[in-house]
Specification:
Low-confidence stretches: 344-357
Shape: globular
Number of strands: 13
Largest sheet: 5 strands, antiparallel
Distance between the termini: 66 Å
Strand content: 25-35%
Radius of gyration: 26 Å
CATH class of the largest domain: Mainly Beta
CATH topology of the largest domain: Apoptosis, Tumor Necrosis Factor Receptor Associated Protein 2, Chain A
Length: 357
């Protein structure tokens, strides 16, 4: 149903990023420094709200003693509470962001209140990669703060039907070509099921399809491609993304895994990133080991690290799953890598490693 009127509400959000470098960081370990607090900082446009960062090199409590804890604190404000989201990350020796973690929700901050991540990164992992994460014995930590500000309403009025966003129109039009097999010029046979498609669109979106069609042109082959290593349902979802950029059925772990493999095979980087994000957000005790295998197979380091962190948190129950026991037999190198990565979970994983000897 088309709208006949309009109204607009603007919620102001002011975001800024603070970079903090701590020198001689290795000297702060082993209980020498319980916590380190940064100088106060504020948004350039206003000094009415002042913040600081706080790091606990040896964790902020018994539960987090094997981790580095990081917090954002509100030092001063004229009106409270202050509503904000926050994100922390480390800048590595190559200048790239590493171990980015953000708050899922907007939180209220009262004066002198701190919020953050008490298990931000394992200390053993941090110090096992000093050249990458602690170049010249310096820890460089960044925090992005997004403050929710004033709310403005614009009164509505009667309007004529709105024109669609041109980008959405293009996606819908291309989707119609795909769904209705209009003006197709090639046939893709997937496990015996036929799909009609357009060479130009496939070649523009996938370097693998481009190379495939160039080879066909050189060899004067037919406009038919046989694909036997993909499930038709997964292939159809991948083709929908190629034409429209949409993934309406990315709702299960198995579909995300299969689409990730397909994206890697056909050079679809955008699809690969979306699947990686879906797998990361939906890690569970049952699928953590399988996700670790998948990330290792397709060389996705960030997803692999997140799977390892998840296993660290739930080591005692993950090590009892059938997926973990299967991984012990099929991918023993990952079990060994997990063991060396997870200092706090050593007591849970050691029996599993002994079975490999």
């Amino acid at each position: 149903m088309e709208a006949t009127g309009w109204g607009y509400t603007h919620i102001r959000v002011d975001s800024f990023c603070h970079k903090w470098t701590i020198s001689h960081f290795s000297f702060c370990m082993d209980g020498i420094r319980e916590k380190i607090i940064s100088a106060k900082f504020s948004l350039e446009a206003s000094d009415k709200v002042e913040w600081c960062l706080r790091v606990h090199p040896n964790g902020s409590d018994e539960e987090s003693r094997n981790y580095l804890s990081v917090y954002l604190g509100l030092l001063h404000c004229q009106k409270s509470p202050v509503w904000a989201k926050y994100e922390f990350w480390i800048i590595n020796s190559q200048g790239k962001n590493y171990q980015s973690r953000s708050s899922i929700n907007v939180f209220s901050f009262q004066k002198n209140q701190y919020r953050g991540f008490k298990r931000f990164i394992l200390r053993d992992f941090l110090f096992s990669n000093p050249q990458r994460l602690l170049a010249e014995d310096q820890l460089t930590l960044c925090c992005k703060v997004s403050i929710v500000g004033a709310l403005f309403n614009t009164p509505g009025e009667n309007i004529t039907p709105a024109i669609k966003d041109p980008k959405h129109m293009m996606a819908d039009d291309l989707g119609e070509l795909w769904e209705n097999s209009l003006f197709t010029d090639c046939c893709l046979l997937v496990a015996g099921q036929e799909f009609r498609a357009h060479k130009a669109i496939l070649a523009a979106r996938s370097p693998v399809f481009r190379a495939m069609f160039e080879h066909q042109l050189e060899k004067r082959l037919t406009n038919r491609v046989d694909i036997n290593d993909l499930d038709p349902k997964v292939f159809k979802e991948m083709m929908g993304f190629i034409y429209t950029g949409k993934l309406p059925n990315l709702h299960s772990h198995s579909m995300a895994c299969d689409l990730l493999a397909a994206a890697d095979r056909y050079g679809l980087e955008g699809l690969k990133v979306i699947c990686e994000d879906a797998l990361s957000r939906n890690l569970s005790v049952e699928n953590a080991a399988h996700t670790l295998i998948l990330a290792d197979l397709h060389n996705i380091q960030q997803l692999k690290n997140e799977a390892l962190y998840f296993i660290a948190f739930y080591a005692s129950v993950v090590s009892e799953t059938s997926e973990w026991k299967s991984m012990m037999e099929s991918h023993p190198h990952l079990v060994a890598e997990t063991f060396h990565f997870l200092g706090p979970a050593q007591c849970f994983l050691e029996p599993s490693l002994k079975q490999l000897k």
